[in-house]
Amino acid sequence: VFAPAGTPGPIVDRLHAEIMKIVATPEVQARLKNFGMLPSQMTPAELGEFQKAEVVKWGKVIKAAGIKAE
């Protein structure tokens, strides 16, 4: 789950805490796993770093494959 850039830290922290409570419920765990998803316990900072790394990683793949937007 992402929030707009510049969202105040306390709001991000509250959203994170509430979402983690929901994701931890057996019903949501089962539904996510049914979709082939693996629920994660990343903090907002860890998610930000993960997202940055994914952009770099997949950017290299796209460039190497010569993929262009239409």
Regions with little confidence, pLDDT below 50 for 5+ residues: none
User: Count of DSSP helices?
Assistant: 3
- Main beta sheet: none
Spell the H/E element sequence. HHH
Taken as a percent bin, the fraction of beta residues is under 5%
Based on DSSP secondary structure assignment, what is the total number of beta strands? 0
What is the C-alpha radius of gyration, as a whole number of Å? Answer: 16 Å
- Mean of pLDDT: 94
Q: Helicity range of the residues?
A: 55-70%
Coarse morphology? flat
- Structural class determined from secondary elements: mainly alpha
Quaternary form: single chain
Please summarize what this structure is:
This protein is mostly helical. It has helices at 9-23, 26-34, 44-65.
Task: Explain what you see.
With 70 residues, the protein is mainly α. 66% of the residues lie in helices and 0% in strands. The chain is built from three helices and no strands. The chain has helices at residues 9-23, 26-34, 44-65. The longest helix has 22 residues, at 44-65. The chain is flat. The model has no long low-confidence stretch (mean pLDDT 94).
Helix-strand blueprint:
Layout: H1 9-23, H2 26-34, H3 44-65
Features of the shown structure:
70 residues, mainly alpha, 3 helices, flat
